[in-house]
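Morning run. Coffee first, then this:
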Amino acid sequence: MATVSAKQNSGMSALSLVYCGMFAALMMIGANITSFVPFLVVGGVPITLQPFFAVLAGLILGSRLGAISMVVYATVGLAGAPVFAKFQGGFAQILSPTFGFVISFILVAYIAGKIVEKNGSLQSYILAGLVAIVVSYLLGTNWMYFAYKLWAKAPDAFTYKVAWAWMIPPLPKDIILSILAGVFGRRMYKVLKVRRRR
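And here it is:
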């Protein structure tokens, strides 16, 4: 019995790794949609599908595995793989004004996962997506503002209000996709039956 149990645990661990890798790969794809539609860049901030996949990772995998999948994505990018927006990568990206959004995706997945772990209703899934996006905007936009003010070359007439004005174009898209992520994430969780480890 002990041997069977060990095998089962090993199988779940392997499956969890597959799921984490899958969402890390989806983040890499979602980051570079601007390569096909380059007009989706406002004030140097690319409009990507990363928030959607980060939310989905948390909703489906749970807080722990969802956050791990985002850590994997960030680590691969910092290691030099061109997986960040506009096919950028390398440790120097930590100084990028938009790197705060990459960090925020870890929190996005964790927070979204935590909310649905406590309540699995459809309303909770949608709420989780919306709350997570708010966190992403808060961390990402403030990082961008201070980056431009402290170490990056700020555009002319750049202010805190301008930084937030740049977030207006992607906002409707992220709100809609967060709601869709809630609906889709709940269905996919029931289909995949991922074992969430808290």
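The two ends are 25 Å apart (CA to CA). Good start to the day.
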